[in-house]
Amino acid sequence: MSADGKAVYVISVAAELAGVHPQTLRVYERKGLLNPERTSGNTRRYSARDIERLRRIQDLTNEGVNLAGVRRILELEDRMDRMRRELDRMANRLQRAEADLAERMRDMAREAGAILPASSPVHLEALLRELERRSRKPIPLGPVSRSRS
């Protein structure tokens, strides 16, 4: 677990770091704004991530947002973070799929160049250039195509 996620601060230290009274942390926990870890003796332990969340809660309440509003804002921010991570994963998958498709197309061009008459690879290269123009990404043509250019 990262240093941010390790729950090491007792309630008094967490409250001091966040600039609030320890009772405030208990209220936030009851309201569902915060969920500190517990030791085997049921003592609350707060992580650096919890402290950042406390500071965010303080910022929002100082701006006049009530605790119900703070809870909703935090839920939406958490949801946005999850969606951003999912979008990044999907973008990476798409990038890998595009690279795989380009590689398959290069393989097909090489295979076609080996079995089609000499004039056909020129047409295939034109097709690949058109696909490249449409996708706005380079599609390397491979060694067979270059040798026939």
Main sheet, how many strands, which sense, barrel?
2 strands, antiparallel
Number of helices in the DSSP assignment: 6
How much β-strand is present in the residues? under 5%
Which structural category fits the helices and strands?
mainly alpha
End-to-end Cα distance:
55 Å
Element order, helices and strands? HHEEHHHH
Major sheet strand order: 1-2
How many distinct domains? 2
How big is the Rg? 29 Å
Structure write-up:
With 149 residues, the protein is mainly α. The protein has two domains: 11-65, Multidrug-efflux Transporter Regulator, Chain: A, Domain 2, CATH 1.10.1660.10; 92-148. The chain has six helices and two strands; from the N terminus they run ααββαααα. A hairpin with a 5-residue loop joins β1 and β2 (44-45). The protein is elongated, with a radius of gyration of 29 Å. It starts with 10 loop residues before the first helix and ends with a helix.
What are its keywords?
two-stranded antiparallel ribbon, disordered C terminus, 149 residues, Multidrug-efflux Transporter Regulator, Chain: A, Domain 2, 2 domains, mainly alpha
Which SSEs are present, and which pair or pack?
Elements (H helix, E strand, L loop, with lengths): L10 H8 L3 H9 L6 E2 L5 E2 L2 H15 L4 H49 L4 H16 L6 H7 L1
Helix pairs in contact: 1-3, 4-5, 4-6
